[in-house]
Design brief:
This protein is mainly beta. Helices cover about 5% and strands about 40% of the residues. It has one helix at about 65-75; strands at about 10, 15, 35-40, 45-55, 60-65, 80-85, 90-100, 120-125, 135-140, 145-150, 170-175, 190-200, 205-210, 220-225, 230-240, 245-250.
Length: about 260
């Protein structure tokens, strides 16, 4: 599945003017508790330049997201940092590894779309290294709303999600992330059904899925869960031509995020 009659776009929300021990087990925890927002912070203004979603895969802060979510911080670290918001506290984010992308996510094309392929990054949440202590949202009224405060001590044991085998056609799924439905970060859940399994041009296992109300911009990097709250994929794209269609990366590509 690539370029053709169905065009796909990355779903990072851009702003313009094997599990370790400890933590809560995936079965005992609300899966939303293992999902968090990743902000792209412009160093010159200390303001958001976009955001995506990530999810913990180990209690020590190891997590997965889409490679295009971390792209700016990876390729231009002089101007961009990554900030994670977890339970109204914010942390710094280290990039462990990230897939090389076919398309530059900072220059999306509404005409040609993007070529689906491996789009996976492993990150690590660490104590805040930012100089500011509060992460604020400025409302249209000019009022400033505090979204999170800095976490400077050792990281706690985070709840995490287990990665399962790849999904199958016909399977019911949920995408949990921070879709762009409000200026205030909120968890957005989209339910759907896998339509068919295929491979991207680079050999990455991917699948298409149909949603009555599909995931929103900002859901990039969200986990795709089966009925047992296990991760069967990662969500990076939606269709430009079919409003109910989205494409996910199979969990077979997540087993070894840093090949």
């Amino acid at each position: 599945m690539g370029r053709g009659s169905v065009l796909f776009v990355l779903v990072l929300a851009l702003i313009t003017p094997a599990a370790a021990g400890g933590g809560r087990s995936p079965d005992a925890a609300d899966p939303a508790g293992a999902v968090f927002q990743v902000e792209i912070v412009a160093r010159d203004t200390n303001k958001s330049a976009g955001y995506g979603t990530a999810f913990f895969t180990a209690s020590d802060g190891t997590a997965l997201t889409a490679s295009h979510v971390v792209y700016r911080a990876q390729h231009d670290p002089e101007h961009y940092d990554l900030l994670a918001i977890v339970d109204k506290e914010f942390y710094s984010v280290e990039i462990v590894c990230a897939s090389k992308l076919h398309d530059d996510p900072t220059k999306p094309s509404a005409v040609t779309g993007v070529q689906p392929g491996r789009d996976v990054a492993q990150i690590k949440v660490v104590p805040s290294r930012f100089l500011f202590r509060e992460w604020l949202l400025t409302l249209e009224t000019g009022e400033k709303l505090r979204l999170a405060t800095a976490h400077a001590n050792a990281v706690p044991a985070f709840p995490y999600l287990a990665i399962a085998r790849g999904p199958s056609a016909g399977e019911h799924i949920r995408v949990i992330g921070f879709g762009h439905i409000s200026p205030i970060p909120r968890v957005f859940v989209a339910t759907g059904q896998i339509d068919r399994m295929t491979q991207a041009r680079d050999g990455t296992d991917i699948f298409s899925a149909e949603f009555p109300s599909r995931p929103q911009p900002g859901n990039s990097g969200s986990p795709i869960l089966n009925d047992r709250n296990q991760v069967v994929g990662l969500w990076p794209w939606y269709s430009l031509t079919q409003s109910n269609l989205a494409v996910g990366i199979s969990s077979t590509a997540l087993q070894r995020p840093c090949p």
